[in-house]
Amino acid sequence: MDLCRVCLVPEPNKDILSESLKARSDNKSFAEIFMFCFDIQVDEDSKISTKICIKCYGKVKTYYNFKCQAVKSDAYLKLLLEESSVKNEVFLRDDNDIKNEHDQPPSPLSDDPQEPEVMVKDEPKDDGLYKSEDDSHDYDDDNVLLSVIKSIKYEYVENDSKDEQPVKKKRKKKDAVVKTSSDPIRQICEECGKAVKDLKAHSYLHMPVSCRKRFKCKTCDKVFSSHSARNKHNKIKHLGIKKQCEICNKTVTHLKQHIRLIHNRSSLPFCCVSCGRRFISKSMLDLHMTSHTKDRPFPCPECDKKFSCKQRMLLHKRQVHDKEKTHLCQLCSKSFFKKYHLQVHLRSHSKEKPYACPECGKCFSTTTILKSHREIHKEEKAYNCTLCDMSFKKKNYLNVHMISHTKVKRYPCQYCGVKFGRSDHRKRHEYTAHEKNFISA
User: Fold this and answer.
1) Could you give the percent of the chain with pLDDT greater than 70?
2) Name one GO cellular component term (predicted).
3) Which residues make Cβ contacts (< 8 Å) with residue 187, sequence separation at least 6?
4) Is 248 annotated as a binding residue?
């Protein structure tokens, strides 16, 4: 039976037969301490559990010290009672009795009648705890006597405590360490093997998502698994004070994190072996590693598309099938799925093009368009067609060229239904065949 011998808690971590109490001078084993406190004998060949939990272990040590103090105090009080009885026998003798001893008639058996024989009891030795007969005449009443006994008692206690207390060396102030509280006991999670402080709160993470309690943001429609996550989101997204980055002049809520992720990625601890890109956490690295594999284990429930991770599949479902567009333009009332798309759209109103090409100086509204444009300045044509000898500088040019081989027409006209292989060809047809005549009329 792997139970605590006192409170029956499962899986205790202390053994009664192996632990010893080294804080006291007697150095008793814990089994002897257990027998002394509870009169329970614990044997090595016992079929009953010989283990005890950490809480009961501390309580037994406290009770042992308490019982030892009680036994010691009882022995001291009994010794004090014996000493006080001897003192009273000396101090409370009547002066008349002492005088009558000297006035007794001489014994008839005595040879010298002028020197009577006096019977005197053996006097105790003068060791500081007892007084002689001559000093008894100084105490006229019981109050004086009790005060003397009390002073002797305190003197005895002080001497006894000085002998028992170990000598403590005084430490310097700069070396003194104040220990407020001991470290909390960590518990092991059976599912993941981690040592955690709060096992109940940690086990909540292993529950299914459908069984967890969700907390909705009071400002937007996002939901979170805990109050702390919701408060953090509200503090950053809705109440956060943004700071401007001196490198790219972008306003962000977390300036240090932005500089580390955007401008100093070489300091990130986790590196991808395939492409050398670095990430701030292992979970981000694992998510990136799915882009190097051809496995697509997460299919979309609405269409035939498959994705490498669940997050991308849910993002696709929200954007394409649910038509979720929460970011609204205040100038033209056009809505977008992502905030970044709204920011790019606002540049069409302001005619802002902040990204310039270093080769030709042409400006663009987004970094994606700039990156695609810079491939034109490359001398080599890295994208080759597999069906003919043609090669292209941009991948998009190769995709457009492949339509001439596959003859796939995916772009139908919205007016007459005629299909085209390229979207620009469809747009040209809609203008020349349908919209031009309508506008001129």
Assistant:
1) 74
2) nucleus
3) 195, 196, 197, 199
4) no
